[in-house]
Design goal:
The chain is α/β, with parallel strands linked by helices. The protein has eight helices and 15 strands. The longest helix has 31 residues. A nine-stranded mixed β-sheet has the order 3-15-13-7-9-11-12-6-14. It has a two-stranded antiparallel ribbon with strand order 1-2.
Length: 306
Amino acid sequence: MWRSPGARSEVRRPALLAALIAFVAVGATVFSGAWHLKNQGTLAASGSRDGIAAAYWQVDPRTAKPVRLDQPLTTQAPVFPGDPPFRWRVFTTVPKDGFLLEHITSLGTHTGTHISAPCHFHVRARCLAQLPVRFFTPRPLVVIDVRARIERAGGDFFVGVSDLTRFEHMHGRIPPGSYVVLSTGLSRFYHLGNRRLPGPFDDYFDNVPGFSGAAVDWLFMRRHILGVGADTFGPDATFDVNFEATTQATAHGGITLENLGPGLAAMRPFGDWIEVNGPRFATAPGQHRPGFSGGQMGMTGFTSRR
């Protein structure tokens, strides 16, 4: 806007005041940042933000070490008994058609690394495309490591509420909005597909632990998490014919994270983050079905570089 020379004195004071305010604001921001860095150890020891322990705020997903947590989806991937096999063929090629395109001829939505939405187990519950965006942003990750327990006594056990409270006593309060997963070490058998190991050995299909239904209820009702998972077919123990963990997680509106990969062993029990992302399969408007009950997802962990 043009002003005459006589008008300059009228705007000089407001302009100087605005500049002074901006200078003070910048100085306060710098001081605040320096204070935070200086006192980061104190915050980590005693503080939290939004109910999330300060240990998590020391890891910034933008600068943290990324860890791949998903498994490759191949035709040799293990398939849950009764699910369709994964099959595909080359549809076009670059020499012939100018571009490469594959045609998937058979694939269940719960094969490979994937999530299960609430409608997987419950009528009129949310399906994949209806899940809020918070499910697909970086979330606090809690890893319950049961590998030593499996080696010592086999995999036929539930992870119960007492195990969770014992974990919290050692590490800290499980954050709201987090994903809580089991690290069994059995993801090392994923490459075997549907082959079974002879003898009384744990494999991808048998003697696999899982969360009890009561433990899942406790996590959702007392800690307000978003989902449970495991580095096996899912959060359910293989001896649990009622699939308590999945039933209760989806009843609470949560999801399950399934077939996580061996990268899970690189994540700390407490203080790291995970991001789940992938296609949101949906049905067309007007179709007489609610949508897809799950789908393949990529999963990335973020941990400290130290």
